[in-house]
Design goal:
The complex is a heterodimer.
Chain A (H helix, E strand, L loop, with lengths): L1 H6 L4 H40 L15 H11 L10 H17 L7 E6 L2 E5 L7 H22 L3 H32 L4 H9 L16 H14 L11 H4 L9 H26 L8 H8 L1 H27 L7 H30 L1
Antiparallel strand pairs in A: 1-2
Chain B lengths: L13 H24 L28 H25 L1 H28 L7
Helix pairs in contact in B: 2-3
Classes of the chains: A mainly alpha, B mainly alpha.
Chain lengths: 363, 126
């Protein structure tokens, strides 16, 4: 595909068709992200309910399946409250920014392998850029502005404290997260998410599609996982919205869909970080015996199966977020900061050095 | 290997604009809809800042602990240092042992700084 692409880069018609295909993929991926985030709220309640021996939402639709739609509808019809002493525009900009940052990352994730439709080969990926992982980090880091601006603009003590906590926590864990990825990049030699997955598609011990990074980077994965929890403000690191101390945290003053945006952005971030984790450490769309399936049933079926399994990996990640929520109690703020700076940061550096030595020895 | 030989063009980034437009459109429409649909009933007491039901005392924008600012400055410092690792990591296999020891030296300097910060109790929370 790349040779064709390079040859016909000047061909406008070809570019328009390619852009159209990309637009369709973007629309589908965007829809999937929003859909999964919507139904994560339902899953969160159901999972919580089963873990606490309850049944959870049951009234709206079969097994409460219409509950997220009812919630969204309710959010629209709630009063839009803006405190008199708040900065009006910043107050509105906060949740919008948080949502924007959450919506922008799904574009670069490779959702599936190569497919062939109408004689044209393309990847199930909206945007294939050579610095995919850096793009994800740059955009995710912008999310902290949404929280910070919203918390400050509310002119409420609880909001401000929550926002400062959130900002402080996010930037602290970003360091260790960035370092844990460096080890993956050293293994792969590229910042492109595509190349990172491509390396994991290769066989390990004769099983195709099993060369997952998690087997090479167990420590790096645990560091990344811990940081992902902190970045998403999820339990055990949900101090920014610690209701016993800070009421609602940074969204204390928010109502209607503005509150909905903050909560929704959190669920989107959970899903996206699960997908990024799957891409970096669990083979992305690669699965065991991928080459055998492709040989027996054709490339398209194999790619679609990989796409489904990739979404499955993401959903399992979201489930894991919920599982941990009801397993671990919340950290204290000094414990959180100590874990981030004094444990994870040196550990991530040690991981980089160890990975370097092992790669050079076995090269 | 096929991927490594691919030539990346600035036009590869075009679909990001589509995604940006889609996200902005979704957000703007949702915000306008929620603004138009919800009721609007104001009163002096209701529009006050919420402070556990009692009358708000002073302004919320009071000075906060300097610890948070120190964390922010340290983040900027260390994040810039971590950014330097990215190009090195991409070319790691080509640079070999030489590049590895170069980076070990760099990391050692960074860790000396980190040790100094820890010893100065900057990261100590009461």
């Amino acid at each position: 595909m790349w040779c064709i692409f390079a040859k016909t880069i000047c061909d406008l018609d070809y570019c328009m068709i390619l852009l159209l295909i990309k637009a369709v993929i973007i629309l589908v991926v965007f829809g999937i992200t929003l859909g999964v985030a919507t139904y994560s709220t339902w899953a969160e309640r159901k999972v919580s309910a089963y873990m606490q021996d309850r049944i959870g939402p049951m009234r709206a639709g079969w097994a409460g399946l219409l509950q997220p739609l009812a919630d969204a509808g309710k959010m629209f019809f709630k009063e839009e409250f803006i405190p008199a002493s708040a900065n009006k525009w910043l107050f509105i900009a906060g949740p919008c920014l948080a949502m924007l940052a959450a919506c922008m990352t799904s574009a670069v994730i490779p959702f599936g392998g190569e497919m062939e439709l109408f004689g044209e080969k393309f990847l199930i990926q909206a945007v294939d850029i050579n610095i995919g992982i850096l793009y994800v980090f740059a955009v995710v880091a912008l999310g902290v502005y949404g929280v910070m601006i919203g918390g400050w603009a509310s002119n409420n003590k609880f909001s401000l404290l929550g926002a400062i906590r959130a900002a402080s926590q996010n930037i602290s864990y970003e360091l260790a997260m960035g370092l844990s990825i460096i080890a993956v990049i050293m293994l792969t030699g590229s910042l492109s998410l595509n190349v990172i997955v491509d390396r994991q598609v290769q066989p390990l011990f004769g099983i195709g599609g099993m060369n997952w990074n998690v087997f090479y980077q167990p420590l790096g994965f645990i560091i990344f996982l811990t940081c992902a929890f902190a970045e998403c403000n999820r339990t055990p690191f949900d101090l920014p919205e610690c209701e016993t101390e800070l009421i609602g945290g940074y969204h204390t003053e928010y109502s209607s869909m503005k509150l909905g945006f903050y909560l929704f952005a959190e669920y989107i971030n959970m899903f996206i970080s699960s997908l990024v984790m799957a891409t970096l450490y669990f083979g992305g769309y690669a699965y065991p015996f991928m080459d055998v399936v492709a040989g027996a049933l054709g490339q398209n079926i194999a790619a679609l199966l990989g796409f489904g399994l990739f979404i499955g990996k993401g959903l399992f990640g979201v489930f894991f977020f919920m599982w941990v929520r009801w397993t671990l109690p919340r950290f204290r703020y000094d414990q959180l900061m100590n874990l981030g700076w004094k444990s994870l940061f040196p550990l991530a550096i040690a991981n980089v050095v160890l990975t370097g030595i092992l790669i050079l020895l076995f090269q | 290997m096929l991927f490594l030989t691919k030539i990346y063009q600035p036009s590869d980034y075009l679909p990001i604009l589509i995604q940006f437009g889609l996200a902005v459109g979704f957000i703007v429409i949702t915000m306008i809809a929620t603004h138009a649909l919800g009721p609007k009933r104001h009163s002096k007491v209701k529009d006050e800042t919420w402070e556990c039901g009692i009358e708000p005392v002073g302004d919320a924008r009071t000075p906060i602990s300097v610890k948070y600012f120190l964390i922010a400055i340290l983040f900027v410092l260390f994040d810039v240092e971590v950014i330097f690792l990215y190009p090195w990591a991409v070319n790691f296999k080509h640079l070999g042992w030489f590049g590895f020891f170069e980076m070990i030296t760099y990391l050692a300097f960074m860790l000396i700084g980190f040790y100094y910060i820890v010893k100065r109790n900057v990261l100590k929370w009461e």
